Amino acid sequence: MIISRPVQYTSRVGEYRALLRALGLVELPTEAETGGSDVWTVFQAGSGRVALHAVDAGDPLDGGAALGFETDELDAVAGRLAQASGVEVRRFARSDGKAIEAVAADGQHLFLLAPTPGQVTAEVAELAALALWVTPDVAGAAYVLNGLGLRGTVASDGGGWYQASADGGGLAAAHDGTEASAQLSFEYDGDVQALQGRLEAHGIGCALVDESYGRTLLVDRPDGGDPLWVNERQTDLYGYVALNA
Question: Within a domain: residue 102?
């Protein structure tokens, strides 16, 4: 089993906690409560999870994101990735075997961790966490996501978009870009205006835009960076193909 769990680095943990709660995510027991570090805070979405990683203000990671996944088969997944062309796999020396870092050929870092203890139910079941991989090599990223054990769901005809689902919950997608980066984003299965109303009731600014593939909610971030994207689940597949693999 594998769960998509994108990571958001921030010096504004309290404000991001409020944002994720407004989106309907529910916090899992803290790492401190389970005997670990309180640097990490993990939230359960309707599908998948999101991790907040506390950093100091001014840290180069502040406001950035990473591709993260939880799996109860770390060795098996790491073994598959090690066989993928151009992927370097290494185990964190201080993780007691519970964390693995993989670096793809485009320089993208992926973090694999053992499942976070605890189980909660999200308030908004329609919302799925989506780890977005921006890359100049979408086909290569798709190959790595498949190696992780994710299942392709939608791809663009032009090759600039590939989306996959994790059997334990959550999504990941590769999108064409000039250089590798990661972003926290979400997909909403339903009328995304319902989520807009919920966010505005919590005092969080957002704007609804109509993209060529469907509607997207652009949500204000606590740090004032580029907005957080919540894509309405795609139903119009013009220019795209549904994958059955």
Answer: yes
Specify burial of residue 71 (Cβ count, 10 A radius: 0-12, 13-18, 19+): buried
Alpha helices in 60-208 (DSSP H): 74-82, 138-148, 192-201
Q: Quote the CA–CA distance of 174 and 154 in Å, as a whole number.
A: 11
Assess whether 109 and 162 both reside in one domain. no
Residue type, 22: A
Task: Tell the residue number behind the tokens 């919540």, with chain if given.
Answer: 230
Answer yes or no: is 139 within a domain: yes
Rg (CA), the chain: 17
Q: What is each CA distance from 171 to 69, 91, 103, 129, in whole angstroms?
A: 10, 24, 19, 6
Report the C-alpha gap between 183 and 134 in whole angstroms. Answer: 8
Percent of the chain's residues with pLDDT above 70: 91
Q: For residue 31, what pLDDT band results from cuts at 50, 70 and 90?
A: low
How many Cβ atoms sit within 10 Å of the Cβ of residue 210? Answer: 9
Sign of the C-alpha dihedral, residues 220, 222, 226, 229? negative
Distance, CA of 88 to CA of 158 (rounded, Å): 28
Asked if the structure places residue 119 within a domain, the reply is no
Which pTM value belongs to this model?
A: 0.92
